[in-house]
Amino acid sequence: MEEKSEEWQSFNGTIDMLKKNAAADTHPLSDKDIMEFLDVDAATYEHYQATDQAPEEIFTQLYATYRKYLPAIVTTIRITSCHYPDDDDIFS
After folding, report:
1. Does the pTM exceed 0.85?
2. CA distances, 45 to each of 21, 35, 72 (Å)
3. How buried is 40 (Cβ within 10 angstroms: 0-12 exposed, 13-18 middle, 19+ buried)?
């Protein structure tokens, strides 16, 4: 079986982890707080959410400032194609 995939830092996963860990430390953050911190407008933030991607500098800024709440890089892997061998190859 041959697979092709792509991997990227997950914007949504990173934001979810940030919010969860900040709230657990009694420092809740809203999307508005994060938008203001990143200095992006709502349309840009919504685009990041819809695509689950953002420019590298966004992640750099988040990890540098919120290191306490972001102990790991959150990635997403998407399988873009998967090729299975023919039945004859499997059962021969």
Report:
1. no
2. 20, 7, 21
3. middle
